[in-house]
Amino acid sequence: MTAPTTLPFAIVNRQGERLDVSFHPVEGAAAGSGAAQVPSAIVVIGHGVTSNKDRPWLVALSEALAAAGVASLRVTFSGNGESEGRYQDATPSKEAGDLASVIDALQRWGVSRIGYAGHSMGGAVGVLCAAEDSRICVLVSLAGMFHVEAFMQRQFGHLAPGDLMLDKPGCPWNTALD
Question: Is the pLDDT reported for residue 163 higher than 90?
Answer without folding.
Answer: yes
